[in-house]
Specification:
It is a single chain. This protein has about 300 residues and is mostly beta strands. It is about 15% helix and about 30% strand. A five-stranded antiparallel beta sheet has the order 13-12-15-16-17, with no helix packed on it. Residues about 45-70, about 290-295 and about 300-305 have low confidence and may be disordered.
C-alpha cells in the first residue's frame, strides 16, 4: 500500500536539517565502505594465515634401514668368531666375539653368506661375520644388502728402516767463536710387558725409555703370534710422551679366551729413536687370570746397529 506525499510534506522533508544530516552520514558511510572494498581487493582479497602445502605426489620419503630389530632377525655366535672389516676369509680381522654372544645384525651380502653387524657393540662402526658362525633367527632375506667400509691399512715393514740423521744431528764445522753443538736427545719407545684388558678389549702401555720426548702420531699394531695376520691397530694423533713417561693405548682388539699376540709400536719406523729394534713384544693375554708376559723379541740379525 502506498502513501503518496503531498507537495507540502516533500518540501518540509527537504528543508529539515536533521534529515539532511542523516542522509549525509549514510552517504559518507557508503563511500568509506566502498573504499575499504577497493583496498582489500588490491591486497588480494580476504586475508588468510599463510600455509605451506606439500604436493604429496612429489614428496620423497627417505630410506629406512631394515635392522635386526626392524625385521625380527637376531644372531648368536655358535663359536668364538672373528669379526672382519669386509666379507671374505682373507680380509683384516677387527676382533673376536665369544661363543653364545649376541650381535646386532645390520645387513647382509647379496648371497647372505656374510652378515654385517654392529662392532664394537653400541657403536656406529661395523664388522662382518661368516653366516655359518651365527645362529640366526628370523628371515635374513628381509635385511638390506649392505656394503663394507674400506679398511684402513697399516703397512708393516719387514725390517727396521734405515734411519736418516736429522739436520739437528749433523755436526757442523766449529767456528772460532762457536763450540761444537750437541744433538737433540731422542726418544726410545718400548711396549710394557704387562698388558691390561678393559671391557674385554686389549690396552697396551707404551713407555718412552729414551732421553728425549716423543712427539707426533703414535701407531700401535696388533698381529697374530707368527706375524702372519694383522688383527687390529690404532693411530693416536698428536701424542707427546716425555722421557720416563708412559701412555695407555686402547687398541680396540677384543680378547676371548687365551691368546698370544705380537704388539708393534711405530711399525713404519716414522719416529726417530735411539733404538727402533725394541719396538715389538710378544704377550700372552687371557680373559681369565692375569696375562703372563713373554720375553721381548730379539732384533732381526740383519737389523743395522744404531
Amino acid at each position: 500500500m502506498k502513501f503518496p506525499l503531498s507537495p507540502e510534506t516533500r518540501s518540509a522533508v527537504v528543508k529539515n536539517p536533521i534529515l539532511l544530516a542523516g542522509l549525509a552520514v549514510v552517504v559518507l558511510l557508503g563511500v568509506i565502505a566502498a573504499a575499504l572494498v577497493l583496498i582489500d581487493s588490491a591486497r588480494g582479497g580476504n586475508a588468510q594465515t599463510p600455509r605451506v602445502v606439500i604436493d604429496q605426489s612429489t614428496a620423497t620419503v627417505g630410506p629406512t634401514s631394515k635392522t635386526a630389530e626392524a625385521v625380527g632377525v637376531h644372531g648368536t655366535a655358535n663359536q668364538v668368531t672373528a669379526v672382519r672389516s669386509a666379507p671374505g676369509n682373507t680380509t683384516p680381522v677387527l676382533g673376536t666375539i665369544p661363543q653364545d654372544a649376541d650381535v646386532v645384525i645390520d645387513g647382509r651380502t647379496t648371497d647372505s653368506k656374510w652378515y654385517r653387524v654392529i662392532f664394537p657393540q653400541e657403536s656406529e662402526l661395523h664388522g662382518w661375520i661368516d653366516a655359518s658362525m651365527l645362529d640366526v633367527t628370523g628371515d635374513a632375506a628381509a635385511l638390506v644388502v649392505a656394503t663394507a667400509e674400506p679398511p684402513v691399512p697399516i703397512e708393516v715393514p719387514t725390517e727396521p728402516p734405515t734411519r736418516t740423521p736429522r739436520p739437528s744431528e749433523i755436526t757442523p764445522e766449529p767456528s772460532p767463536t762457536q763450540g761444537t753443538p750437541t744433538a737433540s736427545p731422542l726418544p726410545d719407545l718400548v711396549v710394557n710387558n704387562t698388558p691390561t684388558i678393559v671391557g674385554g678389549k686389549l690396552v697396551v702401555t707404551v713407555v718412552n725409555q729414551g732421553k728425549g720426548p716423543m712427539q707426533g702420531n703414535l701407531v700401535v699394531a696388533v698381529f697374530t703370534q707368527d706375524e702372519s695376520r694383522l688383527i687390529g691397530g690404532i693411530t693416536v694423533p698428536g701424542v707427546t710422551i716425555a722421557p720416563g713417561q708412559s701412555l695407555d693405548v686402547p687398541t680396540g682388539v677384543a680378547i676371548a679366551g687365551e691368546q698370544t699376540l705380537l704388539i708393534v709400536v711405530d711399525p713404519n719406523g716414522a719416529i726417530d729413536e735411539t733404538d727402533n729394534t725394541n719396538n715389538r713384544m710378544l704377550i700372552a693375554v687371557s680373559t681369565g687370570p692375569l696375562a703372563t708376559p713373554t720375553a721381548p723379541l730379539a732384533p732381526p740379525p740383519s737389523a743395522p746397529a744404531r
